[in-house]
Write a sequence for this structure.
């Protein structure tokens, strides 16, 4: 190899190494924690693009975002429209989706709170080790991998095929409530639109969505029967009129006892039948921001671990 060619090759190798290391270094993500729901902001040229962070959702962009950002749209034979979102995210130095194309939601579909322009869902989370610090209201990506030997670190369970390959990134784990071990799906996007009684019970004066946690109806009713002193709100969600809400004084997560936590009721089939198809084990509800607000939560999706810090 000629000296000049060797020098160029060496410099390119060093450059790629440096880029790789920079990619792996912890990176703070511009985040907003609004009523314990999490939103990420990618600093695009012209105007930032805001994403709702939802560990049980899909990844998509709303059509209205195209008025502020140019992205070529492709309509496939199915009739769905897709855009090359990662090109935009790369220009903003924002963690990528890893997909060639991302679904574009038309007007009137997939509308989100807090003027979000899209959603980053379970597939996006599945690529990274990241921290959602509800206490300091910060978010970090490219965190160092977790160790199962670290305190307050628990395994996350996922649906896998017969070969042990992960099929989805819906993460589930167990918590202790009222002396029982209850499997739940991790749901940073769990939310409700509280009605007047729910707002009064929680001391909330706003009229927008707020974070929640969910439990199946049969467990909800058992809690209410066994603990008549636990406050209950009927007709808690103004969109879904049959949703009830109960204030659980304390729960135990990864060795931490925290509370109180508000849980909303959902039909047993919603989790035992529907969600359990994606989690690889039966789940009885979802743990969302009404409980996660007490933690600095690090999620190592590639290694299937979660660390809960106070």
């Amino acid at each position: 190899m000629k000296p000049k060619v060797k020098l160029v090759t060496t410099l390119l190798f060093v450059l790629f190494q440096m880029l790789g290391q920079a990619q792996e270094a912890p990176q703070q993500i511009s985040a907003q924690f609004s009523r314990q729901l999490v939103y990420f902001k990618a600093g695009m040229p012209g105007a930032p693009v805001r994403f709702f962070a939802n560990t049980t959702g899909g990844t998509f962009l709303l059509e209205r975002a195209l008025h502020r950002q140019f992205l070529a749209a492709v309509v496939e034979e199915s009739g769905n429209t897709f855009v090359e979102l990662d090109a935009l995210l790369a220009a903003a130095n924002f963690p990528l989706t890893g997909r060639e194309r991302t679904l574009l939601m038309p007007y009137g579909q997939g509308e989100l709170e807090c003027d979000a322009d899209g959603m980053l869902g379970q597939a996006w989370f599945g690529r990274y080790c990241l921290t959602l610090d509800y206490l300091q209201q910060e978010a970090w990506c490219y965190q160092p991998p977790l160790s199962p030997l670290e305190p307050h670190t628990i395994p996350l369970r996922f649906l896998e095929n017969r070969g042990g390959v992960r099929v989805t990134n819906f993460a589930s784990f167990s918590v202790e409530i009222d002396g029982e071990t209850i499997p739940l799906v991790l749901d940073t996007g769990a939310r409700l639109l509280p009605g007047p009684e729910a707002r009064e019970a929680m001391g909330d004066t706003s009229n927008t969505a707020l974070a929640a946690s969910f439990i199946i109806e049969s467990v909800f009713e058992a809690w209410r029967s066994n603990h008549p002193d636990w406050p209950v709100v009927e007709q808690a969600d103004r969109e879904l009129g049959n949703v009830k809400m109960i204030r659980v004084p304390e729960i135990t997560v990864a060795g931490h006892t925290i509370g109180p936590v508000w849980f909303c009721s959902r039909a047993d089939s919603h989790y035992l039948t529907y969600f359990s198809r994606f989690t690889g084990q039966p789940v009885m509800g979802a743990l969302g921001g009404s409980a996660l607000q007490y933690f600095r939560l690090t999620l190592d999706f590639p290694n299937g671990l979660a660390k809960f810090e106070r």
